[in-house]
Amino acid sequence: MKNLKNFIALFLGVLFLSVSFGQDLIEAKDLAKMMKEENVVVVSAQKSSKYNDVHITGSINLPPAKLTVDEPVPYILASPEQMADILGAAGISEKNTIILYDEGSSKYSGRLYWALKYLGAEDVKILNGEIKAWQAARKPVTGSATKRKATTFTPNVQPQYLAEYEEVMKATTDDSYVIIDARSIEEYNGTNETKQRKGHIPGAVHIEYKDVKTKDGKLKNAETLKAMYEEKGVTSDKTVIIYCKSSVRAAIEFMALSSVLDYPNVKVYDGAFNEWQANPENELVTN
């Protein structure tokens, strides 16, 4: 009986991890089967130059930078209405199944994933391993651009996914929050070369965005991610705020925590380090 209980517990644990791991991730072989479905839109979040070199056949190009503005600080989200117009013009509706990928870093696919989730798109996935996994699976690529017919994207803003400056300030002294700095260790410690002020937001723990991925560029499994985050005090009972310099790198951690690990309260600080360091009254910590 004891062995049976142990087996059931192990089975349920594996089942939970596999379900949560796959929620907003898709493997190359599964994407290949979906490519011709009418409601599926495959989007390259690569920079245009990379897209023009090589991309998944049939995918359109939308770098997340197109959804941003540079005021009051660089690279923050444009208004929901502006972003909806850009998405609609690109042929993307909130009703589509949207599959994202980039050149392999997951910075750009992650950022576009977060922006779409913020706008209320419900069925958004990232290709696990990005274009490199697609190529490794010997699936078709091209340098010829694909265009879609314009459509309407109707935003349904999810404000719980975005942290504003005032909430980040509160989080620096509130134990119900944990702040993650997704930048490099040099940026976190303040030893990097930069014209900006150096250091990190008080109380922030360092988990670089690269740490959520394996050496082959795929997302680490749920069990490994859970252990890594919990070791740094990032637990599911807390509100998690993630930032980097401009919250491009931060966004793949949003996906890892909110989708793979199913943490209920995860946000990206869109103003990011750019906004925080711009105020000389804001404290920065160096190591």
Account of the protein in words:
The longest helix has 21 residues, at 2-22. The model is unreliable at 4-21 (pLDDT under 50). This protein folds into two domains: 21-157, Rhodanese-like domain (Oxidized Rhodanese, domain 1, 3-Layer(aba) Sandwich); 160-278, Rhodanese-like domain (Oxidized Rhodanese, domain 1). Helix 8 links the parallel strand 11 (177-181) and strand 12. Helix 5 crosses helix 10. A five-stranded parallel sheet has the order 1-8-7-2-4. The protein is built from eleven helices and 14 strands. The N and C termini lie far apart (53 Å). It has 287 residues and is an alpha/beta fold. The protein has helices at residues 2-22, 28-34, 48-53, 80-89, 107-118, 130-136, 165-171, 185-189, 222-231, 251-260, 272-278, and strands at residues 25-26, 40-44, 55-56, 60-61, 68-69, 76-77, 97-101, 124-127, 141-142, 162-163, 177-181, 205-206, 239-243, 266-269.
